[in-house]
Amino acid sequence: MEISGSFFALLLLLLGFQTISSYDTSDSIYDRFVQCLSNNSSPSLQASSIVYAQTNSSFTTVLQSYIRNPRFITSSTPKPLIIVTPTDESQVSAAVICSRDIGIQPRIRSGGHDYDGLSYISDVPFFILDMFNLRSIDANISDETAWVQAGATLGELYYRIWEKSRVHGFPAGICPTVGVGGHLSGGGYGNMLRKYGLSVDHIVDAKIVNVNGTILDRNSMGEDLFWAIRGGGGASFGVILSYKVKLVGVPEIVTVFRVEKTLAENATDILYQWQHITNKIDDDLFMRLLVQPITVKSDKGATKAKKSQKTVRITFIAMFLGDSTRLMSVMNKDFPELGITKEDCKEMSWIESVLFWANFDNRTSVDVLLNRTSASNFLKRKSDYVQTPISKNDLEGLWKKLIELGKPGMVFNSYGGRMNEIPASETPFPHRAGNIFKIQYSVNWHEEGAEADKKYVNLIRELYSYMTPFVSKSPRASYLNYRDIDIGINHNGKDSYQEGKVYGDKYFLNNFERLVKVKTAVDPQDFFRYEQSIPPLPYSGEIDRVRASSARSLLDYRNNIWFLIIQLVL
């Protein structure tokens, strides 16, 4: 039987279609992505210079450079098919267009501090859109603003402000290597939140690439989307390019202290009293408490060896926007139980306090804030909010639990002040008035392997479970930037909205539904999705219909081709 050339043409067409529809290799995706970027970018772009395939010798280095949690550097961790590292905003736009055309999901990474790695891992075929090259900062002291790109770090932002002014700062986190894009889009808090609120409370403009690859600013995106990306997580709505922020005033002299108390040094009574004043004390004062199980040596007489004893240590770390004389007046009036002395206080400039909070010694140059690298342990984090003081009896029960578990610790962060004044609906971040302090649960470890991972993650989960009676309820609230997939994940299928509501209510409380409406308006087909993204509304099963229709179209197309082939053969 003779087979015509038409048969071969149709067969090649079908095979080509099947190749596009199936799981592509990294090299195939790389070639198509490079070609697509070239078609959608300026002629001067050599697209291959910003795209890394898995076969590229630099792929692993680029991938791991901004993974801040070694739990996700293992042979079994899902790897991106490619990494795209744009050097200008138009290339981000082109990358979004290409990811839609090719059908591969983006993971957007600015600093890599997502605790559970959702900015650089996924269980579906994906690529990383790595923003580290986009890190310009333009601080304008005359109007007290700064444009900062998403790939910049907080340390770089603080440094560029300090270069131009000794009396300006910005209220954001204490870790210098955290990326601006993720930090600000998720809320952004730091040691000036009682005075100035969150980072998102000082965003006045933004630039984002939407699902169509269009670059929008505040005016063109509209107030609903602008609201959503100030605490609702930018990666659900597009790719954040930059934020324009309003700077805040800082005094020439600030004061810090660090004081430790163990249970033998009356830590329980001190902490109990701290709960009653920490959200009411002078707004210029912020106190963070590190609560850790430790082992100490105790003397048992001159002829006996020192004996090990387990206890709990509470470290009080404070930031005060003023001099030590005024700080002592505040402490003696409102919190004398801590017993702070003038000798405990250290006066310094605001930029020096940034180094203090980042645990650099007092001889370290400010230039260290430009260092983008950081050493990390294996880690897991969780969060809670406390709205009613915990009784002394319950605190003593908590100490026993911490000593029993041995490894996990807790961080208590003061609320109140300006946080009480901003309505919960002002931004997507809802955890404002009514909270005394926020808890971060923390566990770090050095051992590699799945058994160690399981062991330490189970420890922190047990501590989290133990705290259930003492924290917020209905729902039990969590902080988005302390990413925690334990509270729920989205499989992005027919139950996307219901699954999203589980974690969405905890992160955003009553603001979740408004976020869903914004998502539905700007990305109704849910292109920008990940394991804890904001889902669109499931109105009449629209998303399922779109995906089902697409699947039926593909099936009909393939069936029609096979029908034609059979007819030709026969």
Provide the residue-averaged pLDDT: 91
Q: Segments where pLDDT lies below 50 for 5+ residues?
A: 1-23, 545-570
Structure annotation, total helices: 17
Shape: globular
Strand content: 15-25%
Helix share, percent:
25-40%
Largest sheet: 7 strands, antiparallel
Major sheet: arrangement of strands: 15-12-14-13-17-18-16
- Kindly state the number of beta strands: 18
Structure classification: alpha+beta
Estimated radius of gyration: 26 Å
Distance between the termini: 9 Å
How would you describe this protein?
Helix 2 (26-40) packs across helix 4. This protein starts with a helix and ends with a helix. It is built from 17 helices and 18 strands. A 7-stranded antiparallel β-sheet has the order 15-12-14-13-17-18-16. The chain has a 5-stranded antiparallel β-sheet with strand order 5-6-10-8-9. Residues 1-23 and 545-570 have low confidence and may be disordered. The chain is 35% helix and 19% strand. The radius of gyration is 26 Å and the shape is globular. It has helices spanning 5-21, 26-40, 59-65, 89-102, 154-164, 180-185, 193-196, 218-221, 223-228, 267-277, 324-334, 350-357, 392-405, 450-466, 496-508, 512-522, 542-569, and strands spanning 51-53, 82-84, 105-109, 126-130, 137-140, 145-149, 168-169, 203-209, 215-217, 239-246, 248-249, 254-262, 285-298, 307-320, 346-348, 378-386, 409-414, 437-445. With 570 residues, the protein is α+β, with helices and mostly antiparallel strands.
